[in-house]
Write a structure and sequence with these properties.
By secondary structure, the chain is an alpha/beta fold. The chain folds into five domains: about 40 residues, no CATH class; about 110 residues, OB fold (Dihydrolipoamide Acetyltransferase, E2P), CATH 2.40.50; about 80 residues, no CATH class; about 190 residues, Rossmann fold; about 180 residues, Rossmann fold (3-Layer(aba) Sandwich), CATH 3.40.50. About 35% of the residues lie in helices and about 20% in strands. It contains 22 helices and 21 strands. The strands form four sheets. Strands 11-12-10-13-14-9-15 form a seven-stranded parallel sheet, sandwiched between helices. Strands 16-21-20-17-19-18 form a six-stranded parallel sheet, sandwiched between helices. The chain has a five-stranded mixed barrel with strand order 2-4-5-7-6. Helix 12 links the parallel strand 13 and strand 14. Helix 6 packs across helix 22, helix 8 packs parallel to helix 9 and helix 18 packs antiparallel against helix 19.
Length: about 675
C-alpha cells in the first residue's frame, strides 16, 4: 500500500519517509526501532559524564537564532532542570527551530561537558503531555529531515493495522519448529511489553530474514556449476616465477590460496570465489597472482575497487607489478576524452588489465577477452554488481576479497553463492598496534597526547560512525571536526566522509599522505585499503557501536610505518558487556579469533549487520538475536529444499526484500 493511504501520512511526509528508503507500508513495518527508551531511566543532567548518553526531563526556556560555523549550521535551545541551566545543540537541522517551543520536554542524547558548559548534542526530543506514550519501552527510530518520533510511531501503528504480514517459511515447517506468527513478532518489535517479548520477536524476524536470504543464495547458485569456456595455459612454474617478483616470501596461507585459485582456474568449472583474510595477510598479492594467471594465458583481467582513492592506489601497484603488460585506469572523475580513448583501446584488446571503480560496470565498457575479475572489499559490492562485471566476458572467473574476517561456519552460510578461501596467517614483519580503552573522563588527556604526537611529525585518524547524527546517538564526523578545530587550533585537521565527491576525497587523502594535514576526521571510508605510513594514532569514537572485526580493520590503518602506533577506543558505555568486548580487541590481534569472539558476545544481530552484509540485511542491524538463529534458518532452508517448496513465492520475496538481487537470474 502507498504510504499516503495512511491517515497520518501526507504527500510531503511520504517524501520524508522516502529519504529513509521507505516507499510503502511494506517497508514501513519493517523499519525497526534502533533503540528503546526505558522511561524509568531518567537522570539528573548534573550526574552525567562527558560523552555519555542520557534521558533527561527538563524545561525548554528559549531558542537562539540560527547560527553558522564554517559550512555547518547549528540550532541551540536553552534548557533548565531543577535550577540547573544547560543547552541542546543540533547541527545542520535548521528546521528544528520552528518546532521547539517553551515547555516541558523529554530529551535523549549525548552529553558534552566542557569549559564549564553542559550541552546535549543532536538529541531526540518529545514534548511531555501531548498525547505521547511515555511509559514502558518506547521505540526510537532512525530519523532524517523533518520526521519526528511521534510521527513515525503513529504511521507504523497504522501500517501494522493495514498491512498483512505473511511468512515465506512453508506452513508445515512453521508447525514443526513451533514458530510463532511473523505478524505478532513484527508488532511486538514496534511496541514491546517487556524486554523478553522484544528478544523473542527479534529472533523470529531474524529467522525469517535469514531463511529468505539463504534460500535465495541457493536459487542463485543452483544445483549445478557453470562450465569453463576459456582454458588457461599458464603453468605452475610460471606462477612460481611471478611470485618471485614480490619483495617478500609468501606465507603458507598465501601459497595455499594461490594453489586453490590455480586449481580452480585450470579445472572445467568457472571460479566464483571469496578470498578473506586478516588485515595485512597479503590478499592483494594473491589477487595479483590470479590476474597474472589470466594475462599470461592471453586474456584480459579487471580489478574493481570501491573508491577512486583505493582504485588509484591499486592502479599504481598494478602498473609496477605488471611492467610488461598494458594497464588501464577508469574512474568517474576522469575527463570524457580520456574515458573514450581508454574504452576504445579496451574493446580492441589494447589493454590487458583494467583497474577502476564502479565506472567499469557501465554498459559502454566492453572487453575483447575478459576472463578474470577481482572485486576488492566485497561488502561494498552487491551480488548483482559482481554479476554485471562477470557478464562482460564469457563465464568470467570472479575473485572477491574481504578484510573483515567472519567465522568459517557463518561464511559458508552467508556467502552461499561463493566458494570460500581463507588466509589464516599474516606477515610476521607487521608491527602490533597498542590498543587502549579511553573512557569519557580521559578524553582531554588523549587530545593532549595527540597534540604532542603531531608536533613530532606524526599523524592521526579520528573515526566516527556517521556523517551527521540527527539521532543523538553517536558523535558525528561533522560535529567532531568542528569541536577538534576549536580545542586544538594549532593542529591541522581535514574532514573526509562518503557524501563528498570522489575527486574531493582523493584530494584530501593525497594531501593527508603528503602531511599537509596532521589529523584526518573521517567516517569508516578510511577502513578500505588506505596506506599512510606516518599515521601512528587511530581514535575510534563510540567504539562500542562497532563490531570487533571492523574495529580490528580500522586499527589496521596504523602501524604501517616504523614508528610505534596506537589505537584509542573511546566509549561512554562502560557496561560489563561493552568493556568485555573492547578488552578482547585490546588483547587480541588475530582477526579470525576476534570474529569468533564477537559472534559469541554479540550474537548474529550485531555481528552480521550492515558492515558484513552490504545492504542485504540492513533491516536487521537494529535487532538483537543469538547466532543460533542463523543456523536454525539454514537448517529450515535445507529441509524446505529437500521437501520441495514454492520457489515462485520465495523468489518474489527475495526480489522484494533484496534489491541487489534484481539483476540476478534465479534458477
Amino acid at each position: 500500500m502507498k504510504l499516503t493511504s495512511l491517515r497520518s501520512v501526507t504527500e510531503k511526509r511520504a517524501k520524508e519517509f522516502e529519504k529513509l528508503g521507505i516507499r510503502d507500508t511494506y517497508d514501513l513495518i519493517r523499519f525497526y526501532p534502533r533503540a528503546y527508551l526505558d522511561m524509568t531511566a531518567r537522570v539528573s543532567v548534573r550526574d552525567v559524564f562527558h560523552n555519555d548518553m542520557a534521558l533527561i526531563a527538563c524545561r525548554l526556556t528559549s531558542v537562539a537564532p540560527l547560527r553558522y560555523t564554517g559550512r555547518v549550521k547549528y540550532t541551540r535551545a536553552f534548557l533548565e532542570q531543577d535550577g540547573f541551566v544547560f543547552s541542546a545543540i543540533w547541527f545542520n537541522m535548521p528546521y528544528l527551530a520552528s518546532r521547539l517551543k517553551e515547555g516541558e520536554y523529554l530529551f535523549y542524547g549525548r552529553v558534552q561537558n566542557q569549559y564549564g558548559q553542559v550541552t546535549l548534542v543532536n538529541p531526540t526530543f518529545e514534548p511531555i503531555g501531548r498525547n505521547v506514550r511515555l511509559k514502558g519501552l518506547v521505540p526510537v527510530y532512525p530519523l532524517r529531515g523533518s520526521l519526528t518520533q511521534p510521527a513515525v510511531r503513529t504511521a507504523v501503528q497504522q501500517a501494522l493495522a493495514a498491512e498483512r504480514v505473511d511468512s515465506v517459511i512453508p506452513a508445515p515447517l512453521q508447525e514443526r519448529y513451533a514458530l510463532p506468527p511473523l505478524s505478532l513478532a513484527v508488532s511486538a518489535v514496534h511496541a514491546p511489553k517487556s524486554q523478553k517479548e522484544l528478544e523473542q520477536a527479534s529472533e523470529r524476524i531474524a529467522l525469517e530474514e535469514y531463511f529468505t536470504l539463504i534460500s535465495a543464495f541457493k536459487l542463485i547458485k543452483g544445483d549445478r556449476n557453470e562450465a569453463r569456456l576459456r582454458r588457461y595455459s599458464v603453468t605452475r612454474q610460471e606462477v612460481e616465477g611471478f611470485i618471485g617478483r614480490f619483495p617478500f616470501a609468501f606465507t603458507a596461507g598465501q601459497q595455499a590460496a594461490v594453489r586453490e585459485i590455480y586449481e580452480n582456474l585450470t579445472s572445467p568449472v568457472r571460479m566464483n570465489r571469496l578470498l578473506q583474510g586478516d588485515v595485512g595477510s597479503g590478499k592483494t598479492a594473491v589477487a595479483l597472482t590470479g590476474i597474472f594467471m589470466a594475462v599470461r594465458s592471453g586474456f584480459q583481467a579487471a580489478y574493481l575497487s570501491p573508491t577512486e582513492v583505493l582504485a588509484a592506489q591499486n592502479y599504481s601497484l598494478l602498473s609496477k607489478t605488471f611492467p610488461e603488460y598494458r594497464v588501464g585506469y577508469l574512474a568517474g572523475g576522469m575527463p570524457a576524452k580520456e574515458k573514450r580513448e581508454l574504452k576504445a583501446a579496451l574493446a580492441r584488446g589494447g589493454i590487458d588489465i583494467l583497474c577502476g571503480t564502479h565506472a567499469i560496470l557501465q554498459a559502454d565498457v566492453r572487453f575483447s577477452a575478459l576472463a578474470f575479475c577481482v572485486c576488492d572489499e566485497q561488502h561494498r559490492f552487491g551480488v548483482a554488481q559482481r554479476n554485471e562485471l562477470s557478464e562482460k566476458g564469457e563465464n568470467v572467473d570472479v575473485l572477491v576479497m574481504s578484510a573483515t574476517p567472519i567465522p568459517r561456519t557463518l561464511s559458508l552460510i552467508f556467502y552461499g553463492d561463493l566458494d570460500v578461501t581463507t588466509i589464516p596467517d599474516k606477515p610476521k614483519e607487521r608491527q602490533e598496534v597498542s590498543t587502549s580503552i579511553i573512557p569519557s573522563y580521559r578524553y582531554e588527556d588523549m587530545l593532549e597526547y595527540i597534540r604532542g604526537q603531531t608536533k613530532l611529525g606524526r599523524q592521526a585518524y579520528f573515526v566516527c560512525a556517521k556523517i551527521d547524527d540527527d539521532e543523538g546517538q553517536v558523535t558525528s564526523v561533522t560535529e567532531l571536526y568542528e569541536e577538534l578545530r576549536g580545542r586544538l587550533p594549532d593542529v591541522r585537521f581535514a574532514l573526509l566522509h562518503g557524501r563528498m565527491k570522489e575527486k574531493e576525497k582523493a584530494e584530501i587523502m593525497t594531501a593527508f599522505k603528503r602531511k599537509e594535514y596532521d589529523c584526518l576526521v573521517s567516517t569508516t571510508v578510511i577502513e578500505v585499503g588506505i596506506d599512510v605510513p606516518d599515521a601512528t594514532v587511530m581514535v575510534i569514537m563510540n567504539a562500542e557501536r562497532f563490531g570487533l572485526s571492523q574495529l580490528h580493520q580500522l586499527r589496521g590503518r596504523v602501524g604501517r610505518g616504523s614508528e610505534k602506533s596506537y589505537c584509542f577506543l573511546l566509549t561512554g558505555d562502560l557496561s560489563e558487556t561493552a568493556v568485555e568486548r573492547l578488552n578482547v580487541l585490546k588483547h587480541t590481534t588475530d582477526g579470525f579469533a576476534l570474529a569468533e569472539k564477537d559472534l559469541e558476545l554479540r550474537g548474529g544481530g550485531d555481528f552480521l549487520g550492515t558492515r558484513q552484509s552490504g545492504r542485504l540485511l540492513s533491516g536487521l542491524k537494529n535487532l538483537k538475536y543469538p547466532a543460533e538463529t542463523i543456523f536454525l534458518a539454514k537448517r529450515i532452508s535445507d529441509e524446505a529444499f529437500a521437501r520441495g517448496l514454492d520457489r515462485g513465492a520465495l523468489t518474489e520475496a527475495a526480489r522484494r526484500k533484496y534489491e541487489e538481487l534484481k539483476d540476478v537470474v534465479l534458477n
